[in-house]
Structures are given as C-alpha cells and as structure tokens.
Design brief:
The protein is 32% helix and 14% strand. By secondary structure, the protein is α/β, with parallel strands linked by helices. The strands form three sheets. An eight-stranded mixed sheet has the order 2-12-9-1-8-5-6-7, sandwiched between helices. The chain has a two-stranded antiparallel ribbon with strand order 3-4. The longest helix is centred in the middle third of the chain and has 25 residues. It is globular. The N terminus is likely disordered.
Length: 337
C-alpha cells in the first residue's frame, strides 16, 4: 500500500543534455521553465562513466551501480541461443532498478521509455518500454503496438492510442524548427524523415507520461526522453558556428534544429512540472553531454558505437522540491566545465 506520508518524486531523463548548449539559451530567455527550475533548486554537472554509451549509463542511473554489476554494457549483448548478438533488454539487467525496489516497498511507481526496458516490467504501476513509441508499420496499416510494450496488459489499447506516428508530423510542427523545409529535396536529403521520427517518438513518450500524471496515483515516476541525443546526432553538424565542409545552404536550413530541440524539451518539462505539482521533488538529469563547438568530430568511426565520439563527458543535474535548498536567484551562476 502507498505510504500516505511519502513525498512524490519525478525523475526526468534528457539524454545528452549539455550546459554548453543550455546556458546561451537560458541567457536569451528561451528556456524559461528550466531557468525557473534552476532558480528554485540546485544545478550542477554530472560526470559520466566510460565508455560513454547510453544503455549502460541510463541503467547505472536507474540502479546506482556500474555496468559490471547491472549487466548492461552497451547496445548489444551475446545471444547464447544462436551464438550471435541481440539488443539489450530489460531481462539483461542483473540487479533491481529503483522502480523494482519501490514496488517491493508498496509505492505506486511508473517507469516510461527507459533505455533497455523492453519487455515492460511488472511493477506496482505502469511500465512503458523503450519499444513503445517506435513505428513498426505505415500509419495506414494500423501501426501495431509491440507485444509486451506496456504493463499492465489491460492498458495496452489505451496507450496505443497515445502514440504519434511520424506520418502525423505536419507542417505546423516542422516549420517552427525548419522554416525553409520546403526547399529540401526529400529524395536526396532524409533530414525531414529523421526529424519527424525523433519528434513523434518523444511526443509519444510525453503523451504517456502526462496521461499517467493526470489519471493515475503515483509516488514515483521516471520518464526518459532520447530526443536531444537523437536530434544532436542527426543535426549537430549544422549547429552554429558552421563547420568546415558543411554546405552553406544546408546549414541555413537545419541550423536551428538543435536549439529547437532544447526549447521543445523545456516546453515538455513545463507540462510535467505543472502536473506533478509544487510538492513533488523533481530531478532532471542527462547521462552525458554532446560536443557543440570546435570539438565536434569531423567524422564518425564506422562501427556500432562510433557516434559516441560526439558525446561530451559531462551531463546535467538539476533538482528542486520542498526539501531542496534553493539557489539565490541573484547569485546563481551558469554551470561550466
């Protein structure tokens, strides 16, 4: 049974969020939700672990243990049945995550979209796996929800309706990010397809999280967004200043996407905070940062973990709540490394 005296805790994961991109946006007043969050709580750097691979890192965040203990070392693992490799899953984890521990203590607990969380785990609440938002078929083919993507199974149909398909991302959503989208030759440039996929998947996770906060009792909710990381991998080489070798016309088309991703996450955070209420303790974390300046690599190694060369070894950490000491707004300083 839920402890009536328990304080609600909301854990929000922004993969690859980095103060080096955030601080200029805060200074321009373009992330007002995070700015207010920081000024009513605490902020700092979160040093990552190596290798800087998201499945390993997010499971370290969820368990408080390093990879040799929790068992998830990267994106793939040996498959003992056929001698090959397979994607890591929730069954790859060898230790309890925080939602398992809280379930055992009787707290109403929800976990959404966490890396390597499929199949959805049976917990004292709702579990939505990382395969939940992925479009496995065209929209007109009814877009089936992967089996065991939602727990409990009784909510499967309800959560299937909350998803956004990439084909449903219209001009109204695209043009604020990419005003010159009409100039893109979509036969040769797949940037808009990538953009729509990332946006739709993160909207799907956000819809699921907000539905729970509106409709279900909760003591703890963890929700993970991969949007910043995916937008950065797809578009950081177009981020200002223009990198050598990037055509000026493509730079002008895509230059605002990364900043737009952060501003979009700021808007989603506003909704989460409003629904969680002022009595909730909220933690916002990233697993690593992302090179956004002269340290951006010119090329990516041709190997599965090659894109990790774009990752920076410092993520973000913010926390606020009734029992968290507030930073004095007049003396708060941007976080740097």
């Amino acid at each position: 049974m839920t402890d009536p005296l328990a304080k609600k805790i909301l854990l929000v994961g922004w993969d690859a969020a980095d103060w080096k991109v955030i601080n200029p946006l805060l200074g321009q007043g373009l992330m007002p939700t995070l700015d207010n969050f920081i000024n009513h709580g605490i902020m700092g750097n979160l040093a990552t672990l190596r290798p800087i691979l998201s499945p390993m890192l997010w499971n370290s965040i969820a368990t408080g243990k390093r990879a040799e203990k929790h068992g998830i070392h990267g994106f793939m693992e040996p498959d003992p049945q056929n001698g090959g490799v397979r994607p890591v899953t929730s069954t790859s984890r060898k230790v309890k995550a925080i939602w398992n521990i809280l379930t055992q203590r009787g707290f109403k607990t929800h976990a959404l979209g966490w890396f390597a969380s499929h199949p959805a785990e049976p917990i004292n609440g709702i579990s939505v796996s990382d395969l939940y938002p992925l479009a496995s078929a065209p929209l007109e083919q009814e877009w089936p929800l992967p089996s065991t993507a939602v727990y409990p199974e009784s909510l499967r149909d309800s959560f299937a309706k909350l998803r956004v398909h990439p084909a449903e991302v219209t001009e109204a959503a695209i043009l604020p990010w990419i005003p010159r989208a009409a100039e893109i030759d979509q036969e040769k440039d797949k940037g808009l397809q990538s953009f729509a996929k990332i946006l739709a998947e993160n909207c799907s996770i956000h819809n699921a999280a907000t539905w729970i906060l509106r409709n279900e009792p909760w003591d703890f909710l963890a929700v993970y967004y991969d949007g910043i990381d995916h937008f950065c991998h797809a578009f950081m080489h177009y981020h200002p200043p223009r990198m050598e070798g990037i055509p000026e016309e493509k730079f002008e088309i895509y230059k605002d996407v990364v900043n737009g991703a952060y501003r979009f996450h700021d808007m989603m955070l506003r909704t989460l905070l409003d629904l969680a209420g002022p009595e909730a303790t909220v933690l916002l974390v990233s697993d690593h940062g992302f090179h956004s300046d002269q340290l951006r690599p010119r090329g990516i190694p041709a190997e599965p973990a090659g894109p990790a060369v774009q990752h920076r070894p410092f993520g973000i950490f913010c926390m606020k709540g009734p029992h968290v000491k507030q930073v004095n707004e007049s003396t708060a300083q941007p976080c740097s490394t």
